[in-house]
Amino acid sequence: MSLVSFARKRYTTKAYDASRQVDQATVEQLLELLRLSPSSVNSQPWHFVVASSAEGKARLAKGTQGAFAYNQPKVLDASHVILICTQRDMSDTHLAVLLGQESADGRFRDEAARITQQNTRNSYVNLHRELGDISHWMEKQAYLALGSLLLGAASLGLDATPMEGIDREALDAELGLAERGLSSLVMVSLGYHSDGDFNAALPKSRLPAERVFTRL
Ligand SMILES: Cc1cc2nc3c(=O)[nH]c(=O)nc-3n(C[C@H](O)[C@H](O)[C@H](O)COP(=O)(O)O)c2cc1C
């Protein structure tokens, strides 16, 4: 199947078959897609909380109460649920870890290359600090990972639900994310849809190409 076929086929699942589990090898592929996701200046400002047990999903479901209760069955009945988080700040520690990893991975021919990378990354971080949008900048990077995850899930034959309809404060409190320098951002359920999923049979709806593209 072509990549576009997967993009056409995938859709937001509204009800899961709670009896079906995604096998571990497939889950590991998805996690590797998240880890390999690109980010501006390789900043990787994310962390992923992965729930597969009933207990883990119940904890994530604490972010789907009140106004977000419509998302709760999608969390409890899915096979796996991933909470995408971002860092609260681009700390010096994180910047040092990034540089050390790139060094260990053989990215630098010499010390000058290492310093250039350090300076380039720092200049972007400082720019976004000055603009006052560093959190938003980190969130944009995390949404790239979300896109990879959704298309990747479809290519592996899985159903998925991206959810912004979550109580981020409740999730931060439940998981102690602030203490870890993290904030919850967006959640994704993964698994197999149930027969009761009304969305499975609906046609996809997107704006036409002539409206969304300007070809020069
Ligand atoms: C970032 C993001 C957040 C979303 N949040 C929710 C949500 O909380 N609950 C839900 O049922 N669908 C949610 N959706 C699904 C969208 O409504 C859906 O992607 C859109 O209508 C396009 O339909 P499709 O995904 O079936 O192609 C979200 C989608 C995205 C990309």
The SS-based structural class is alpha+beta
What form results from the Cα inertia axes? Answer: globular
With strands numbered from the N-terminus, the spatial order across the biggest sheet is: 1-2-4-3
Number of helices: 9
Please, how many domains? Answer: 1
Cα end-to-end separation: 30 Å
CATH superfamily: NADH Oxidase
CATH classification, class level:
Alpha Beta
How many DSSP-defined strands? Answer: 4
**Which CATH architecture would you pick?**
3-Layer(aba) Sandwich
Strand content: 5-15%
What would the keywords be for this entry?
alpha+beta, NADH Oxidase, binds flavin mononucleotide, single chain, 216 residues, 46% helix, 4-stranded antiparallel β-sheet
How would you describe the overall organization of this protein?
The chain is an alpha+beta fold and 216 residues long. The protein has one domain: NADH Oxidase, CATH 3.40.109. Helix content is 46%, strand content 13%. It contains 9 helices and 4 strands, in the order ααβααβαααβαβα. It has helices spanning 3-9, 24-35, 54-61, 72-76, 92-104, 111-131, 134-155, 168-175, 209-212, and strands at 46-51, 80-87, 159-163, 182-191. It has a 4-stranded antiparallel β-sheet with strand order 1-2-4-3, sandwiched between helices. Helix 2 (24-35) packs antiparallel against helix 7. The structure holds flavin mononucleotide. Flavin mononucleotide (FMN) binds at residues 11-12, 14, 71, 161-165, 186, 204. Flavin mononucleotide (FMN) binds next to strand 3.
